[in-house]
């Protein structure tokens, strides 16, 4: 599994404001949207393309186009939805599927409550969107579900990741055969006893959707 913490002053600046408890939900939503576009630029370095020739107004030009089948973008509801527009801005022709998952705050285990995805993902590159990689339980379950349907290349795009969550993903998904990548704005220090990322940014879904 490859992990990339994107090192860029704009990412760092936007993340700092995103963390700030004084940042209201409209601003939080805008910053999450801007951050995912910056992260998606790095996360799509391996997006599959095929050679293509087009006619310019003056001559023919050899280039590339996105390969088929089209990539699949999977926001994990609720908080992942705040990253969807920023991702489709970069990959407008991608298909979008949905997973609704919620972490039980006692057991910290992820439950899936909604699945709107193709049954067969053979040969598909998938980009999973979830702002927070804390224990890794949610993303591990989501990526496992995609691999079980045949996905052969999965990249998770997060805003914050905890070392514990990265280690969990590594353990759960090692040996899956398909390339698994995590692209994040930062790797934070640790999880607290409630499974929250420290220093983190609080509950991403609550901050995105005005739950005070
Ligand atoms: O790595 P984990 O320990 O699984 O925690 C990360 C998950 O927790 C939060 O979701 P939550 O369950 O709070 O639901 P929400 O997205 O609707 O807020 C967050 O959006 C991630 O999906
Ligand atoms: O810090 C955390 C951990 C899990 N989920 C969140 O939204 N924030
Ligand atoms: Mg969530």
From TrEMBL:
Allosterically activated by GTP. Keywords: Allosteric enzyme, Glycosyltransferase, GTP-binding, Magnesium, Nucleotide-binding, Transferase. It comes from the Bacteria. Uracil binds at residues 197, 202-204. SUPFAM superfamilies: PRTase-like. Residues 6-210 form the Phosphoribosyltransferase domain. The keyword NADP does not apply. Belongs to the UPRTase family. This is Uracil phosphoribosyltransferase. It comes from Actinomadura macrotermitis. The gene is upp.
């Amino acid at each position: 599994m490859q992990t990339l913490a994107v090192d860029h002053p704009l990412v760092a600046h936007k993340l700092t404001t995103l963390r700030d408890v004084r940042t209201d939900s409209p601003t939080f939503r805008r910053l999450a949207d801007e951050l995912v576009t910056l992260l998606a630029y790095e996360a799509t370095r391996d997006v599959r393309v095929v050679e293509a020739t087009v006619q310019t107004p003056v001559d023919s030009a050899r280039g590339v186009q996105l390969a088929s089948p089209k990539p699949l973008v999977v926001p994990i509801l609720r908080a992942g939805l705040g990253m969807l527009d920023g991702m489709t801005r970069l990959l407008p022709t991608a298909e979008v599927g949905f997973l609704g998952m919620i972490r039980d705050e006692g057991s910290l285990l992820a439950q899936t409550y909604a699945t709107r995805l193709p049954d067969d993902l053979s040969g598909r590159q998938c980009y999973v969107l979830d702002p927070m990689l804390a224990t890794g339980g949610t993303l591990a379950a989501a990526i496992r579900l995609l691999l079980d349907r045949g996905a052969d290349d999965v990249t998770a795009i997060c805003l914050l990741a905890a070392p514990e969550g990265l280690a969990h993903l590594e353990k759960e998904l090692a040996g899956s055969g398909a390339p698994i990548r995590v692209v994040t704005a930062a790797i934070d220090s640790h999880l607290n006893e409630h499974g929250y990322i420290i220093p983190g940014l609080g509950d991403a879904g609550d901050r995105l959707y005005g739950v005070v």
